[in-house]
Amino acid sequence: xxxxxxxxxxxxxxxxxxxxxxxxxxxxKRLQERRHLVKQASRGYFHDYNELRQQGGKAFVAPKxxxxxxxxxxxxxxxxVSLATKGKVHTTDLFEDKVSLVVFSSFRSSEEHINSFxxxxxxxxxx
Length: 127
Description:
Layout: H1 17-25, H2 27-42, H3 45-55, E1 79-81, E2 88-90, H4 91-95, H5 108-126
Antiparallel strand pairs: 1-2
């Protein structure tokens, strides 16, 4: 597996109008994004089905070893609610100059919804 994350250091908040315009007019950036989207869209049903079989329904399987610093990526900026202060907080502020272990949790209802799709596929693969 590979490191998850974004290559550019994240910033909290949205892009300014000037930054958005510069990105829009940057031909190379648009082509790079287009290539990425075409690659993702051209992966077919069987590719997803094989990944489901190999990974047991997980979208990302963590590596067994730590990721070297030169290969690590930045955690994207996500806005959430602080458990301590109940106020809005950005991951960019929380993780700055720190090594972090991040855990995502989901609601039980979401898990059951996902399992309603995954269980039948996994049982088909076992046969």
